[in-house]
Amino acid sequence: MSARILVVEHQENCSAGLVGRWLVDAGARLEVVRPYRGAVVPQPATYDALLVLGGDMGADDDATVPWLGPLKAHLRDAVAAGVPVLGICLGHQLVAAALGGVVRQSPGGPALGVVPVVWEGAAADDPLFSGVTAAEGVVHWNADVGVTPPRGSTVLATSGDGSVEAARFAPAAWGIQAHPEVDAAVCRQWAEVDREDHLERRVDQEALLATIEGAEAELQRQWRPLGERFAELATARRAGSAR
């Protein structure tokens, strides 16, 4: 039977996208929970893996986003149980915060567009990210970053400004600050939402989107192994649980 991956979606325009497609292509079965529509996030220990997606809210907005506190507790439980976890952008920040890390606004301002990736030596034999270390860039659309990883974390990659791009927070828990799951069409939706802010910041949205569109095919080729590897980890977890 296919590995079951619980996907936590925080808002409608932040779906699993390309990563979800790669997981399904690799044989996984996705069960998407949408707490912003009132759904309750189930215990991840009953699944073979957990994927936590991005969103506009902050990782510490527990007082205004009611599911964030319970989700962080679920993340700690998943890590303790050895359930493979992958957080993307906000998801990355939530895993870090749940395990004792610190998330803040990026001191350099929002990161937008295709950002260079600098791989650390530890990534070469990482169970998840070793398959994508040939990637030279990845799409960013974020204002917050994890400024202090949880104790015991291994930094796998940094961005051009030196901030943490990807990390292994625990033996089977990872995060990536960027958005390997998005294509240019999704970024165009986000750009429309952020139009007023970008005008104030003098961001050339059309140039930004053109760069993303031009890199799209190569980015998808480079990052597809991330989904495939995560599906393999979920399948291995399922096989081990069945013994």
Structure description:
Helices cover about 35% and strands about 25% of the residues. It is an alpha/beta fold and about 240 residues long. The protein has one domain: 3-Layer(aba) Sandwich (Rossmann fold), CATH 3.40.50.880. The strands form 2 sheets. The protein has a 9-stranded mixed β-sheet, with helices on both faces. Strands 5-8 form a two-stranded antiparallel sheet. The chain starts with a strand and ends with a helix. About 45% of the residues are buried.
Mean pLDDT: 95
By oligomeric state, this entry counts as: single chain
How far apart are the first and last residues' alpha carbons, in Å? 14 Å
**Strand element count:** 11
Helices, strands, pairings?
Layout: E1 4-8, H1 17-25, E2 29-33, E3 49-52, H2 68-81, E4 85-88, H3 90-98, E5 102-105, E6 111-119, E7 137-142, E8 144-148, E9 154-159, E10 164-170, E11 173-176, H4 184-193, H5 195-201, H6 205-242
Parallel strand pairs: 1-2, 1-3, 3-4, 4-11
Antiparallel strand pairs: 5-8, 6-7, 6-9, 9-10, 10-11
Task: Supply the key terms.
single chain; about 240 residues; alpha/beta; nine-stranded mixed sheet; two-stranded antiparallel sheet
Summarize the structure.
The chain is α/β, with parallel strands linked by helices. It has helices at residues 17-25, 68-81, 90-98, 184-193, 195-201, 205-242; strands spanning 4-8, 29-33, 49-52, 85-88, 102-105, 111-119, 137-142, 144-148, 154-159, 164-170, 173-176.
